[in-house]
């Protein structure tokens, strides 16, 4: 299946385009679609990093703007065929410390983007990046899309609302939209300056620095990790099919592992670092979700997606990338 | 059961206190609690109406303020024992035409109130007014709390988020909170200037004016109507029990009726008006939820609440109230 074939003549906008998943999507699409515009605010604490688009600078338009800026978005959505809507505040803990910023980015900005499309471009297709955080603590595993949404933190609530706006604008105004509820994504071009944006990539940084990886409470919590290339596949397939309009889908790996196993794998592949059990920090404990594993049958049946990169291979590629480029991601800290 | 006994020494705050449910709650509590403060912005299009508190002016503190005003709320929540959190934008159609205002009131303001309690008054108990609109189009009837939330409009989405903030602040910060998911409430002191705030009260106005009641598409949609006194009971019981902390509950009547039956009852009780089938307005059709009927077993088991006022009796009381006070609710229009 050539996932890129449908994009040949399309104009594509990626919000959060200098961020982790957005930039990996941009690398895949660069030169293979009619026009590729990346919007990113480059807020230092978030995931945007211009090095993420090195090598494709000549094939993309980079537009520095904040999705909270209504008039910029009002202009940027025009004439686009597809919007990959990835801009977001992703830290669970930050959402508790500053719930208003999380609200502005994850709720209000989504409304601005959708209102802009309603006014100026109802024929666009939008794929929104939802999150397994919308489910909160699972009451059964694996989690499918009929599981109740009981987010344990403000971030999960705002993502839940942001996703649902997309579906309502699809149903009421015909602005075609769907959502992928991502689980833990890892891989090259992840934000690596803090531990707040992705646990496995952070473990890989610690291993590459020869440091100890702290496992809160033993690290027995199960997580479902997706390598970023598989997530990029999912976005490409979701946007290209009208069957996905108005739908929400889980993605996942099909095989959850414990944080301990993930950390040990990072140490083993890196050949450095170590693992140590520490006490659960109280603020994290309160919003901890326990085990998570996704059932992605609905999405597989809709578009034929399956993850292709096994965890050891994905960790290997990630270690190789950051070993080469660490100075771009954390060394000047 | 004396529902008011627990309130004797308590300081109570009602947001939306000059509105429909808030003012009925105030009439019940006035003189029966240690202190009763009503906050209302009196935005003309919304439900607040100072006539709603006539007769109890000397027993309440009325504080005109908007729940969007963070610093006012920051002050007003202090030293309160109970907050009945009823302020909201309730029109489904308005939320589609102006989604930002709905977001500000139904999401952001809830965060402000909760942040204020987190900072200044963690021992308060809050009862939030949720809505059956959070469920969207039911996939089974009656709807219990395990039904997925699939709101069909922006209002339902923002109420869903606003409710969940309460539960997260309960779970993470110990700010005790619960939510009642209200269905169609009707009765004295409802906003009657427009059709946007409550279908049965609006039918009663039309009947009292001898006008035709338009039934969109035949009026066969089932609705679950609660008389406001029963809803007041529910709020009083929910706040007085710690068993409700962190919980969400449906309330309902136990017997759904069609909009046609409700309209015919209004005409019959008023002895005026008539009923006419009209086409469904397209903007309302798109967000129409079909039939709704609540399963309120969970709430009955938690606090012993059951609705006490049958529909014909409630309509009779409502007709009598508005026949006497119509000039305060719409006649100067």
Q: What keyword list fits this structure?
A:
homodimer; 333 residues; alpha/beta; Rossmann fold; 7-stranded parallel sheet; two-stranded parallel sheet; 11 helices; 17% strand; globular
Helices, strands, pairings?
The structure is a homodimer of 333-residue chains.
Chain A: E1 11-15, H1 20-29, E2 35-40, E3 61-64, H2 70-76, E4 82-85, H3 92-97, H4 99-120, E5 125-131, H5 154-173, E6 176-182, E7 184-186, H6 199-208, E8 212-216, E9 222-223, E10 225-227, H7 228-240, E11 248-250, E12 257-258, H8 259-270, E13 274-278, H9 282-287, H10 297-303, H11 311-331
Parallel strand pairs in A: 1-2, 1-4, 2-3, 4-5, 5-6, 6-11, 7-10, 8-13
Antiparallel strand pairs in A: 9-12
Overview of the molecule:
Two copies of one chain form a homodimer. With 333 residues, chain A is an alpha/beta fold. Chain A has a single domain, classed as NAD(P)-binding Rossmann-like Domain (Rossmann fold). Chain A contains eleven helices and 13 strands. In chain A, the strands form four sheets. In chain A, strands 3-2-1-4-5-6-11 form a seven-stranded parallel beta sheet, sandwiched between helices. In chain A, strand 1, helix 1 and strand 2 form a beta-alpha-beta unit. In chain A, 56% of the residues are buried. The mean pLDDT of chain A is 95. At the A-B interface, helix 4 and helix 5 of A face helix 4 and helix 5 of B.
């Amino acid at each position: 299946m050539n996932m890129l074939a449908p994009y040949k003549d399309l104009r594509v906008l990626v919000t959060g385009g200098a961020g982790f998943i957005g930039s990996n999507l941009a690398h895949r699409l660069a030169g293979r679609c009619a026009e590729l515009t990346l919007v990113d605010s480059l807020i230092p604490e978030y995931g945007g990093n211009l090095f993420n688009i090195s090598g494709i600078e000549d094939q993309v338009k980079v537009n520095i703007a904040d999705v909270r800026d209504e008039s910029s978005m009002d202009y940027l959505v025009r004439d686009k065929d597809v919007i990959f809507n990835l801009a977001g505040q992703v830290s669970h803990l930050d959402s508790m410390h500053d719930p208003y910023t999380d609200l502005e980015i994850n709720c209000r900005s989504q409304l601005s983007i959708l209102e802009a499309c309603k006014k100026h471009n109802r024929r666009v297709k939008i794929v929104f990046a939802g999150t397994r955080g919308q489910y909160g603590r699972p009451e059964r595993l694996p989690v499918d899309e009929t599981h109740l949404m009981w987010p344990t933190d403000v971030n999960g609530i705002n993502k839940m609302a942001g996703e649902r706006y997309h579906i309502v604008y699809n149903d009421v105004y015909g602005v075609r939209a769907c959502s992928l509820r991502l689980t833990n994504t890892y891989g090259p071009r992840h934000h690596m300056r803090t531990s707040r944006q992705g646990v496995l990539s952070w473990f890989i940084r610690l291993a590459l620095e020869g440091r100890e990886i702290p496992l809160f409470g033993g690290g027995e919590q199960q997580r479902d990790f997706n390598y970023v290339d598989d997530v990029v596949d999912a976005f490409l397939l979701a946007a290209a099919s009208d069957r996905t309009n108005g739908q929400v889908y889980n993605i996942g790996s099909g095989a959850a592992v414990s944080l301990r196993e993930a950390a040990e794998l990072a140490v083993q592949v890196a050949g450095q670092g170590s693992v140590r059990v520490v006490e659960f920090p109280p603020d994290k404990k309160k919003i901890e979700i326990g085990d998570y594993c996704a059932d992605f049958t609905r999405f597989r049946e809709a578009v034929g997606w399956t993850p292709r990169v096994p965890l050891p291979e994905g960790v290997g590629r990630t270690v190789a990338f950051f070993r080469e480029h660490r100075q771009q991601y954390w060394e000047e800290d």
